[in-house]
Amino acid sequence: MTPALQRWAGRFLLWSRLAWLPFRVPRGFLAGSWWSLYPWTSYWRGTHEPAVQAMLQNLGAMTGWSCWDLGAHYGFYSVGLARRAGPTGEVAAFEPNPLSFRRLEYHRRLNRLAWLKVFPAAASDQTGQAEMYTYGELLSTTTHLRYEGETRIAACAPLVVTTIKLDDLVAAGTLRPPDFVKIDVEGHGHRALVGMQATVARHRPHLLCELHTPLELTGMQAILAPLGYEWPATAAVGQDVLVRRPA
Fold it and tell me: Which of 55, 101, 138, 214 is most exposed by smallest CB count within 10 Å?
């Protein structure tokens, strides 16, 4: 198939009902789950981010756990965590991109996961609203809240989204304190941690962090080090890092 034909086929699939056709995931962290056909077929094939999947599987049994997925995208990890936690557990998924959230909610319903709570919002250091920079590509996985020093120009194509301070949800009884938190929020992880700092300090969950910028990395380390968390010596921008709860 030529590149031009591949692009045409991709556009056709994306905007047709075929994109929502359910497939059973054959392997990996999501094995046995239902997933939609397109885009990113590595999801339903079970081959998405094998190193991250291995980190999660190495955590062992998760039955009854409370898990948070910050930056859930289409819900690959949200669905996998919910299936492992089971109905005695609770999983909360946060995704501010409206197109991604629509697919997340579809996958939640497709797998009949009543204990998976989905929030069309970004985890942050305050509850309110913020601009998400899309650069005109809502289908991209790199839409993000404004970076420190990032210039707001027309090309940013900003979209106003809801932000939530997660400590507030725990205090209100909306969420259970977490046993595990996945943080993949395109450089905003240190801000998300500020918003759940009291909960993390009290309950010491395992954390899986995808690191996008030097400021995100140093900011998260500054928050977590006083709580007894030890980062792998190899932690660097561009990596996924599992930071286990302090002993």
Answer: 214
